Amino acid sequence: MREVILDVDTGVDDALAVLYALRSPDLHVRALTCVAGNVALSHVVRNTVALAGALGAYVPVAAGADRPLVVDSPDIVSVHGDDGLLGIAPPGRPIAVDRRHAVEVLHEAITGAPGEVTVVALGPLTNLALLLRTRPDVAEQVAEIRVMGGSLGAGNITATAEFNHWVDPHAAAVVLGAAWPVTAYGLDVFYDPVVPESAITALRADDDVAASLAGELLDRRGQDAFSGRPYLGDAGLVTSLDVGGVTYTEMPVMVDTRPGPTRGMTLADRRSSRHEFAAREPWSPVRVATAVDAGVLTRRYLEVL
Ligand code: BDR
C-alpha cells in the first residue's frame, strides 16, 4: 500500500483522480490539500470536501494557497466550468474542512512517516513551494514528488506553457529545482489515456457513487467544446502509481519564470551528451514521462472504479 497526499485544484481532472485514489486498494490517501488553480480556492475546497463526502471518505481536506507566489492571480476562463466540475454536484453531505493550513498538513504527514509519503501535485505548485521554503526538512523525508505539469512540446494555456506551470511559474521553478526526487507527468502524455464511450455509459449506469460520478464527469468532458475528448488527465498519473504503464527519461529541466510569451514554459535539455548537467545551475534532473501505455492506465482506472 502506497501512502499518498494529493495536492489538488479540483477541477474535473482532479475529481477523476480523487475518485480513483480514494477507491484504489493500493493507495492510502493521507490527506487532500487544496490550491487555487482551475478555479478559485473556495471552489476547490468545496468540490474536494463534496467528493470526499460522496464517497464517505473522512480524510483531512485542507486549504492552502489562494494565489501564486509572485505573479498576479490569473483571470482564467476555466475549461472546467465556473464551479470546476462542469456543473456536476456530488451527492450526499460534504465532509468538514480541516482547519489547518495545507502546508501544515503536508509537513505533519511527511515527517510523521519519513520516507513513506508520496506527494502527488495535480495543480499549480504553490503549496509545495511554500512547504519547501517554510519546512525545508521535508525534502529529505518525502518518498517522492509526482507532478502533473509541464510539456516538452506545445503548451495548452499558451502556445508555450502548460497550465499549472503557467499559473505559478516561480513555484514550479522552486519545486522542480529542489533537492527531492521529482517525476513530471506533462502534456506529452496527459491527453493519451481516453475512456471509450461504452465504458462511460457503463460507469454512468453503475450503482456505485464513485463510478457514476466518474462516468458523469467523463461524459460531460467528452461533450465539452474545450476538452473535446473524455481523457483521464490527472487521473492517469494517479493510476500509474499502481500499474506503471509510463516510460520516463531523466533530463535536466527548468521553468521559465519571465513574464511574456514564454512564461511557465518547460525548458528541457534533451541533448545526448550532457554528462555534467547536475552541476550546471539552474537545470535540475527531473524524471519526465515521455510515453504512456494508454490501454494499461484506462483498464486499471475502470477496474478500480
Ligand atoms: C491541466 O489542465 C488543466 O485544465 C488541468 O487541471 C490540468 O492540471 C493540464 O495542463
3D structure, described in words:
It comes from Georgenia deserti. By secondary structure, the protein is of the alpha/beta class. It has helices at 12-23, 41-55, 102-112, 126-134, 138-141, 163-167, 169-177, 187-190, 197-205, 209-223, 234-243, 294-304; strands at 2-8, 27-34, 61-63, 117-121, 144-148, 182-185, 246-255, 266-268, 284-292. It has a nine-stranded mixed beta sheet with strand order 3-2-1-4-5-6-9-7-8, sandwiched between helices. It is globular and about 50 Å long. The mean pLDDT is 92. The chain binds beta-D-ribofuranose. Residues 11, 13, 38, 79, 122, 148, 156, 162-164, 190, 233-234 line the site of beta-D-ribofuranose.
Say which molecules are bound, naming each kind only once. beta-D-ribofuranose
Largest sheet: 9 strands, mixed
Oligomeric status: single chain
* Backbone structural class: alpha/beta
- Please count the helical segments: 12
Topology pattern, helix = H, strand = E: EHEHEHEHHEHHEHHHHEEEH
Measure the end-to-end span: 18 Å
Percentage of β-strand residues: 15-25%
What's the overall geometry? globular
Question: Into which percent range does the helicity of residues fall?
Answer: 25-40%
Quantity of strands, as a count: 9
Low-confidence stretches: none
Strand order of the largest sheet: 3-2-1-4-5-6-9-7-8
Report the C-alpha radius of gyration, rounded.
Answer: 18 Å
Give the overall average pLDDT: 92
